Structures are given as C-alpha cells and as structure tokens.
Amino acid sequence: MQGLQIFDPSGNILLDVSDNLTRVLGVTQTGFTNGSLTDPNLLTGRPWFTMLVNSWYDTASFTQSASTVPGTKITIDGSVISWIVGYDLQLFRLYIPNITIIYGVY
Amino acid sequence: MTSGLVVYNDTNNLQITDSFKNLQFLYKGTTAPDTKVYFNINDIIAFNCADGNWVGMWINYKDTSFPYPRTDTGLPRSDGGTQKCCLFRGSSTITYYVFGFDVVSSGHYFEVKNSVGEVVFSDSEKFMKVIASCAGQDGGNTASPATCHNRIFNTTAIPLNTTPAVIPGLRCWNTGWGSAGGDKTGHDHHMYEFQNGAVNSLYKNMRTEYFGEAYARASRNIFYNYLLIDVTNL
Predict the structure, then answer these.
(1) B43 vs A95: which has the higher pLDDT
(2) How many CB pairs under 8 A join A and B?
(3) Which of B42, B59, B123 sits opposite A6 (nearest CB)?
(4) Is A29 on the interface with B (CB under 8 A)?
(5) CA–CA separation, B40 vs B54, rounded Å?
(6) By C-alpha distance, which of B198, B206, B111 is closest to B150?
(7) Can you tell me the mean pLDDT for B24-44?
C-alpha cells in the first residue's frame, strides 16, 4: 500500500493511509432560531458534524433536569448545513438549546 | 496552497494540509454507570464500553451543586460557566475519550505548519479519526409512548481490529405521561450497544429518577445523528 504512515516515538502508528481525519471546516452557533449556512468545502469529502450545547432556553419554565442534545435537528445537503431548533414531534414542550456545530469532511 | 505538504488517504480524501485543523485527543478516563463526570464546556466527548454492553450519556445533568449550563428560570442562559455535568448510563464500565482544539505540540520527527507558522499537525499528538457519520430517522418510533424498549433502529459495522466510540448528537426518544408517585418507567431513550463488531442504536427504558423529575412527560423525537470514531490505541 502506498502513502504516508506516521508513527510515534514508541513505534505506534498514529496515522495510516486508510485513516480518515476530521479536517475541520468550521464552527458555527445556531442561536435560538432556525438557520443555515453554506460552505462549498463540504463538497470536498464526506461531511460530518458534531454539536455542543452551550446554553438553552426552556420555553415552559419547568425545572429543566437532564437531556442529551434535545430538539435541534441538523442536516447537511450538499454544501448547506441547516438546523431547526426546538424540534419535538409532539411539541408539548420546547427545549431550545444554543448549539455549537463543529463540522468538516472526512 | 502554492507550496507545502498535502496528504490523501487511500480513498483519495484529503487528510493533511496547512489549511485545515483536526480535532485532537486530549485525555481519557473510565467511570461506572450512573456516575456524574464533569468536563469543560467545549470538550467533545466520545464513549464506549465492553463488547456486549450498552451505554448512553446525558449532558447538563441536574446537579444542585452545579446548576450550569442548564436553566430553570425560563430565561435564555448564556453564562453557562466553564464546565458541564454529564451522567453516564450503561450496563458496564464506561470509557470516555475527550477531544478538542488545543495547541499542537511540535513533532518529534514530523510536523506541518500553516502559513503563519503554527503547527497544525505533528507526530506528538493524536487526532480524531472518523469511522462513520450516522444520521437518519427511526420510522418505528410511534406516537404510543414507551413502546421502543430494546428495539434496535440503526446498525453500523466496524472495521476489523478497530475500537469504536460514539460521539452523541441528536437522539431519539419516546416518553409518556406518568404522575408523581405513579408510573416512573415511561422513558424510552436512545442508547448505543457495542456488539460483535458493530455499534447499534437502540432504546432502553429509563426510570424518571434518572432525569431528576418526579414523573415522565410526553415527548417524542425520531431523528438522530452521531459520530462513530476510531479510538484504537488511545
């Protein structure tokens, strides 16, 4: 197999030709409203994203207890990342987190 | 770029240039199920468990001694502090892996710098490797609450000799009404099972105590996304 392999000083392989690094393209904030962004670099590989919750708004004023990353649906279509906040099929209660999206291609 | 180094992998996807950075591995640890762990607010957390077991994680878990970044006032909260409280659920010991952006140390034998002289890649660091970016919807999650227990709705095969971990994103859930002092089992939640060279998304039923609430509330989501990464030798 041709290509670059990188090893640490102990001889363990750090990067192989079959690996997929994250190649981060950008970081954005959703805020508390629906939105989207366009990044042509998303077309240069297979897109990925992950999300961090920085804060949130609980519309029902209940005592918020626990969650994973509730209610924000993020999709990537071509070069466009879109998000819908407060997503819940039953719309009984809206958790609206402010999400940090970290995205790239691999 | 007009000069410098570019590295592609065997599927012709660009891996290293001076123009992009990668997420770095910072540290790892282990914890028991039902244990709270504190992380920096911007840490990206991956986790796994022994083969044949399942695991999940709640972030911003209620902790009366540590109220941030959740809000219980109904007001937007931007002063989220510098840490987040996470509660791991699972059927065995959980290993978590923390990633983020940090200064890339100079390399022992290999490093790549950007146009302003910053090291963006070196053999002194370990970087996140993606296995798959998973997203979709669970068509079997119906309006009837708490009917999803143990049902697998997505499976991803893992390459041989690879240790996977999950970075959760939007998860599925199906919860129903309960009452204080009454039924407290009405929460079906998206967890991750590591089994036989695959990672499965499935539901596990959680008692409401895990949410710090007296009773369940009706809610449902069928959309999910998460990252599967390679943590071999980390």
Answers:
(1) B43
(2) 198
(3) B123
(4) no
(5) 25
(6) B206
(7) 91
C-alpha–C-alpha distance, residues B24 and B125, integer Å: 7
Distance CA B46, CA B185 (A): 27
Q: What would the two tokens of residue B226 be?
A: 């998460």
Strands, E, within B51-172: which ranges? 53-59, 83-90, 94-100, 111-113, 119-122, 130-137, 152-157, 164-168
- CA dist., res. B84 & res. B57, Å (int): 12
Give the pLDDT of residue A88.
Answer: 52
Q: Which pLDDT score, from 0 to 100, does residue B76 have?
A: 35
Closest Cα to residue B96, out of B132, B61, B134, B55?
B55
A22·B131 Cβ contact <8 A: no
Residues of A in contact with B124 (CB under 8 A): 8
The predicted complex's ipTM stands at 0.85
Nearest to B59 by CA among B71, B72, B74, B70: B70
Q: What does the pLDDT average to over B62-69?
A: 44
By Cβ distance, the residue of A32, A66, A88 closest to B212 is A66
* Residue in chain B lying closest to A51 (CA): B169
Mean pLDDT of B136-152: 88
Q: Could you tell me the pLDDT band of residue B211, with boundaries at 50, 70 and 90?
A: low
User: Which pTM was predicted?
Assistant: 0.88
Distance, CA of B117 to chain centre = 33
